[in-house]
Amino acid sequence: MNRVCSIFAQLLQLFPREKFQQAVNQQKGDRHGRGFTCWGQFTAMLFCQLGQAKSLREICNGLMAIEGKLKHLGIGQAPNKSTLAYANEHRPWQVYQTVFEQLLEKCYSLARGKKKFRFHNKLLSLDSTSIDLCATLFDWAKYKRTKGAVKVHLLLDNEGYLPCFACLTDGKSHDITAARTMHFQPGTIVVMDKGYVHYDWWNELSQQGVYFVTRLKKDLKWKELKRRPVPTNSAILRDQIIEIRPYRRNYTLQLRVVTKWDAEKQEEIQFLTNHLEFGTTTIARIYKERWQIEIFFKSLKQLLRVKTFVGTSANALKTQIWTALIAMLILKYLKLRSSFGWSLSNLVALLRQQLFVYRDLYQWIDDPFQAPPALSGIHDGQLTLDW
Q1: Between 128 and 4, whose confidence is greater?
Q2: Is residue 171 situated within a structural domain?
Q3: What's the pLDDT at 1?
Q4: Domain-embedded: residue 321
Q5: With CB atoms 3.0 to 4.6 Å apart as the test, which of 90, 188, 272, 285 could cross-link to 216 if both were Cys?
Q6: Is residue 49 assigned to a domain?
């Protein structure tokens, strides 16, 4: 006999109520709640992400349709549209940022040791993505006269490809402004694109013992100090130690340029780094690993609800994006726990169909096409029709 709760309820068990309530109390999230708690809001918004609901009506009606099963989720009844809309507009979104960080600790315990490189340095990819918004509805998200936008600035950890830090800004904020608010442990390697060129920041990273790998901009002025030997029979063309003298600065930057021949595009690619010890092929592989954050952004936009929003206020939008990041962590957690070769797209599609099925979650992610225990053998002994 099947004695497990629904898959959605088992996913909610990843968030201990005591820790969740601590985050709520810290931000005073349940103040003036009037019976609808932050847990109810979190359940509804997580259902929006995992159940692929496109509007407040779909969220509320979807939960109302399974009203008999709501108590095991920790909520008494499905919220009204106006109640959920008011909560999204006024409940502090910082609650869900804290919940995101709590779940990240669980994911790290599974991802530890799962990385491609042999060096012990932590490898992080830094990038941002813009989400277009209607300027008339989202008038607070300044970008252009007829177009609004919000930026998601993200750090992706190479160990398990987990989003370890995120912040949200309007579309006008420059990438380097958000990057300079981040703090890294000494020995960390940060890989980024050419949008993060800033001499003062590079100098700060070097003084803190933090390494970076990026692409060399063509208009960057530098002087070659030394040319190193390169591996034979490889795509590496040059390995140069260079010096950059920023204008009106009292310091110089001693960096390294590694030039590689791209046979597919038939062009040279130049990588810039302050790490002088790694091999040239390792530097090239590190930058290639930056593509994983592009894949993450693509999955976030295609598989979860971050392009259509159920509220127009800044608080409602940030709440929805943070719950989307939490949902992405859930998917990453399930992939790390599973022995089945899931792709994120297949996992999202099947999880949406199985969300309120009563079966063991961890048996299902290991063998998703096995019938539930209560249904096994249900067709045994049926008559076959001879057509």
Answers
A1: 128
A2: no
A3: 47
A4: yes
A5: 272
A6: yes
Using DSSP's 3-state secondary structure scheme, residue 233 falls into coil
> Rounded to two decimals, what is the model's pTM?
0.91
For residue 240, is it within any domain?
no
Nearest residue to 214 (alpha-carbon basis) of 117, 283, 282, 278: 283
How confident is the model over 133-141, as a mean pLDDT? 88
Q: Where are the beta strands (DSSP E) in the chain?
A: 123-133, 148-157, 162-170, 189-191, 211-215, 223-228, 236-244, 253-262, 267-273
C-alpha span between 328 and 291 (Å, rounded): 18
What average pLDDT does this structure show over 350-372? Answer: 89
CB contact at 8 A, 183 and 230 = no
Please, are residues 125 and 191 in contact by the beta-carbon 8 Å criterion?
Answer: yes
Rg of the chain, C-alpha, whole Å: 25
pLDDT in tens, 260-285: 999 888 999 999 999 999 999 999 99
Task: Report the number of distinct structural domains present in the chain.
Answer: 1
User: How far is 141 from 132, CA to CA, in rounded Å?
Assistant: 9
Residue 201 burial (CB < 10 Å; 0-12/13-18/19+)?
middle
If DSSP states are collapsed to H, E and C, what string results for 249-318?
A: CCCCEEEEEEEEEECCCCEEEEEEECCCCCCHHHHHHHHHCCHHHHHHHHHHHHHCCCCCCCCCCHHHHH
Tokens of 193: 């694109």
Q: Which residue has the tokens 């909560």?
A: 87
| Predicted pLDDT of residue 68 | 66
What are the tens digits of pLDDT across the range 201-250?
A: 999 999 999 999 999 998 889 999 999 999 888 899 999 999 999 988 99
